[in-house]
Design goal:
The chain is mainly alpha-helical and 594 residues long. It is built from 26 helices and four strands. Strands 1-3-4-2 form a four-stranded mixed β-sheet, covered by helices on one side. Helix 2 packs across helix 6, helix 8 runs parallel beside helix 11 and helix 20 crosses helix 24. It binds zinc ion (ZN) (2 copies). One zinc ion binds next to helix 20.
């Protein structure tokens, strides 16, 4: 998991979208266009802008009605016309990558609006809480100024929920239940704590009175939506409700837009099936070696998965303690950095250290993720990157033990490779060498996750952990999770896999606990395609590297390959492949350009 800290966007000057005579240099013209595009994008989507750390439009709340959806289509079509003035072939590689990302975004957003229409069947798309919470909890401006922004933004909350109710038609049961749960939670943002803050603020008496009135109206609107959904819920019988399964017709285009893979979903699914079998074979091999070390003369189970499962359970008992956990992680980061340097695997930047800390209490991932990278965006590249590690202090002892067993001595190393070095943190250092707002707003999730998953295997291939079978076994288990995520997502949404078979896949073939498997079943009902992104990125990166090795033979240099691969930033792997096919001298801004 990677959480991007809110980015303070550069004050890009808003310009009217009137046509300006294009300057002669296509790169300069495109750069100007990209700046304008980002400014217009942030103005059109104020909620997205707030999440990205751009607050100039924060007072305006988008009311999700038919008019807003029509306006979006008009906005997207206008941007498509503006983009069509550029010939991507005439642009330098980094800008061409931005061009592709913008085009994909415009097509994808129009497709969601017109064809996917989740605004109709997913009631959880409607929730006003997050932007309000960000405005209240982010110290981007003086407190009173932020409260005034919140006050203005509150005005249209009742109109927002009226539009939400008018938009929802024949929703799924699962998204309805989620919307109920999340909107009930949203009420917390508009509770007594906020009112106390307003009373203690420097706002005038009239403003304070208006604030109290609007908070009350916002609460009533949320409660109204919750009551409406609660009344709707019992009518959502299997015959009445829309199925949570997306179906092939919607799944395939969604996969194309969201993953932007060089593979079709069928090709990826086949690769995932093959990878699953190879991983299980490899795990069996390691489990056979480990059995006598851990079980002595006790007879080995005949059945493959029983053997692997028992060895995993035994190996998992070696783990840290809650009080030592953060320090253990900290110590390991230094060791990983030294190893990457000694083995010459990829460039690092000692001037931008990674600070390991306990996940702050306000961070939403505290309850869920064991660790995450909290990184500055390209507009604040000198800010500190944090590695948030969950101190587990608010967990029950049972939950602590279960987390510690999952992230045992061996698995913790895989996790640190993935999240930090040379995974997400290292990738981000490279991405920030060529800062681009387009790439930070429209970055490719599969490339980012694929890289992190790729480094797990790459580190072990290069000798991290001295080939300990325990470490290979845990790495295989970690990778099996990403492989099974892909199999699960496609099987559930397109092939109609049952809950029973899904749990069997996760628990019997991927060695997950029942809690983890049930959590995954819930996630696959509520999301689609996203679960394929880890393996999609990994499979493409790994195959690309193997092809480069074959093609270059003796001349293949792993560090050079990694540095160049990362130099393009968070763009789809298939775009990087195209860009890397060009002579390196063309890459003026690449760190390893000749
Ligand atoms: Zn990740
Ligand atoms: Zn234990």
């Amino acid at each position: 998991m990677r959480g991007l800290r809110v980015i303070v966007a550069a004050a890009a000057v808003m310009s009217a979208s009137c046509a300006v005579a294009p300057p002669t240099d296509p790169n300069a013209a495109f750069r100007a266009h990209a700046d304008r595009f980002v400014a217009e994008l942030m103005a059109f989507y104020p909620e997205w802008a707030i999440q990205a750390g751009e607050y100039r439009h924060a007072a305006r709340l988008t009311v999700p009605d038919d008019a807003a959806r029509a306006a979006e289509l008009k906005f997207l079509a206008g941007q498509q016309r503006a983009l069509a003035q550029f010939d991507p072939a005439a642009l330098e590689p980094l800008l061409r990558a931005d061009y592709h990302q913008i085009r994909n975004f415009l097509e994808s957003a129009a497709w969601r609006n017109r064809t996917l229409r989740s605004w109709q069947w997913d009631p959880s798309e409607y929730n006003v809480a997050t932007p309000f919470a960000l405005l209240l909890n982010t110290d981007y401006a003086p407190a009173d100024e932020r409260l005034r922004t919140v006050l203005a933004r509150l005005e249209r909350v009742p109109a927002y929920y009226a539009a939400a109710q008018a938009s929802v038609q024949r929703p799924t049961r699962e998204h309805t239940a989620l919307a109920l749960q999340q909107n009930r939670g949203a009420l917390q943002v508009f509770g007594d704590e906020l009112l106390a803050r307003v009373r203690a603020s420097g706002l005038g008496a009239d403003e304070k009175a208006l604030f109290a009135q609007r908070v009350q109206a916002a609460r009533a609107a949320i409660e109204g939506y919750v009551a409406w959904l609660a009344a709707l819920e019992p009518t959502l019988t299997p015959g009445q409700a829309r199925s949570f399964r997306l179906g092939r017709e919607l799944y395939e285009p969604k996969f194309r837009y969201d993953i932007q893979s060089g593979f079709t979903i069928e090709q990826l699914y086949e690769r995932a099936q093959g990878a699953k079998e190879r991983l299980l074979q490899d795990m069996e091999r390691h489990a056979r070696v480990l059995w006598p070390r851990y079980f002595g003369r006790k007879p080995m189970p005949k059945e493959r998965n029983a053997l692997i499962g028992q060895v995993i359970a035994k190996v998992s008992t070696r783990h840290s303690k809650p009080a030592r956990f953060v320090d253990d992680v900290r110590a390991q980061i230094g060791a990983l950095q030294a190893f990457v340097r000694e083995r010459d695997l990829v460039d690092q930047d000692p001037s931008k250290p990674l600070v390991v800390r306990e996940t702050p209490p306000y961070n939403p991932v505290r309850g869920v993720a064991i660790a995450s990278i909290d990184a500055p965006g390209p507009f604040d590249p000198d800010a500190t990157t944090y590695y948030n590690v969950n101190p587990m202090s608010d967990f029950t002892p049972e939950r602590q033990e279960s987390f510690l067993r999952e992230y045992n001595h061996w698995m913790l190393q895989i996790l640190n490779i993935h999240e930090a070095v040379p995974g997400h943190y290292t990738q981000l250092l490279h991405a920030n060498r060529s800062p681009s707002l387009v790439k930070s707003l429209l970055g490719s999730g599969p490339m980012v996750e694929g890289w992190a998953v790729y480094t797990e295997r790459m580190m072990l291939e290069n000798g991290w952990g001295n080939d300990a079978p325990e470490l290979w076994l845990m790495m295989d288990k970690f990778q099996l999770r990403t492989v099974c995520n892909t199999i699960l997502d496609y099987s559930v949404h397109v092939l109609g896999m049952s809950e029973e078979d899904a749990l069997k896949l996760l628990m019997q073939d991927a060695f997950q606990t029942e809690t983890e498997a049930r959590g995954k079943w819930r996630r696959v009902q509520l999301t689609s395609v996203q679960l394929t992104s880890y393996f999609a990125g990994f499979a493409e990166i790994y195959e690309f590297r193997e092809q480069q090795k074959l093609a270059l033979g003796e001349r293949f240099d792993l560090k050079r390959f990694h540095n160049r691969f990362l130099s393009f930033g968070s763009v789809p792997v298939k775009v990087i492949r195209e860009l890397m096919a060009e002579p390196e001298t063309a890459l003026a801004s690449s760190p390893d350009a000749r």
